[in-house]
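Predict structure. Input: ABC-2 type transport system permease protein, 413 residues.
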Amino acid sequence: MSMWHIARKDLQILFRDIWGLAYLFLAPIIIIAIASVALSGLYGGPTEKFKIPVVVEDSGQAAKDMVEALNKVEALDLILTYKKDGKEQPMTRSEAEELVKDKKAAIVIPKGFSKAVDEGKGASVEVIQNPADQVIPGVIKNVVSEYTSRLSTAIVANQVGAQSIQNFASVVGQKHNLKLDPTSEISKVQDYVKPYTEKPPIEVKTKSLEKSKGSTATPFDYNVPGYAVMFVLFGASSAASALLEERENGTLRKLKTLPISSQSILLGKMLSSFMTATFQCLVLFTVGYLVFDMNLGNSILGLLLMMISTAFAATGLAMLLAAFCKTRSQASGISLLVVLSMSALGGSWWPLSIVPEWLQKFAHVTLTAWSTGGFSDLLVYGGGLVDILLPAGVLLGMGLLFLTIAIQRFRFE
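Output follows.
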C-alpha cells in the first residue's frame, strides 16, 4: 500500500465525519465573522454615533450655545431627556450616572456655567467616564475640550481687547495728542494675558464612575474574569467529552446495573464537573489577587455567588452538549466552537463596550456576557451583592434549564 492509498483512506474518513468537517471550516469562519463585526469600528468601517447623556443644569446662553455646538458634532447623539412615569424629563446627574454604565460617558454643564463664562473665570464642564472603557470617554473629553478651548480663546480675546481699549482711551485722554508710545501698553496687555494662558478660563473636569476603593481599575480587573469564564467553559466541556467516552466504553451501562437512578448518575457527573469548575474559578481569582494585585471588589459574598453561578451555568451547558452529541469527537469539536464563539461574542476577549450597541444586546444570549458583566459590576464599579443578583440569577436559570433538558435527552446507550 502506497502513501497515496493511506492519504486517500484518511481523507475518506475525514469527509465522512460531517461534524469534524463543520468544525474544520465553520469554526474559523464564525470566529472571524464575530471578531470582524465586533471590531469594525476600529478599522475604518461604518462607525455608530456615540449616544451620550448630557445634563444641562444651567439655563444661560453659554450653556445653550455649548449644547448647540455639541449637537453639530457628527459623532455624537446627545441624550438630553429621559422618561419618567411615561413623560420626558430633562436629564439629571443621577440618571446620567446610571446611563454611563451602558453609554460609557456623560457630559454635565453645571449651574453657573454661563455666568462664569461671561465673567471670564471659573467655568467648568464635567465629563463622567466609565472606567471599563478606555476609548469613548477619551473621545468625549477631546470633543468637549476642543469646544471649550475655542470658547476660552474667545473669552481671553474679549477680556484682553476690552482692557486694551480702556488703557488706550485713558492714555489718549491724558496726552491729548496722537504721538503715542505703545511699548508700556503692550507690556500691560501681556501681563493681563498671562493669567489666562497659565490657567484657561474654562476647565474640563473628569469624574470616574468607579466606586471601588483604592486605585483605578487595572487590566487584570477586566482580563482575569473574562479569561476565567472562558477556561471554566473549556474545563466543563471536557467533562462532556469524558461522559460520552464512558458511554462509548460501556461504563455507563455498567453503572445502570447498580441500584441508582439514571438521573442520579447524571447529577453525580454534573456535581463533579461543577465542583471542579468552582475550584478552577477560585484558583484563577486567587492567583489574580496574589500575583497581579487584582482588585476583589467590596463584596466577597457577591464574588463567590458569581463564581458559583458561572460554574453552574457552564456545567449545565456541558451536560446539554453531552445530551445532543453522539460521540466524544463530535462533542469536542462542537464544544470548542461553542466556547470560542461565546467568548468572542460575550466579552471574554475584549470589553463589550467597544462593540456596536446592537451586538452588545445580542451578546446577552450567552452566559459569558452575563458572567463578565456581573464580575465587572463587582470588581470595576465596586458593586455589592444586590448589584449582581440579576446576572447571577440569569446564570443559575440558564444552568437549571440546560440541566433539565440534558436529563430528559441524554441516552445511556
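The two ends are 37 Å apart (CA to CA).
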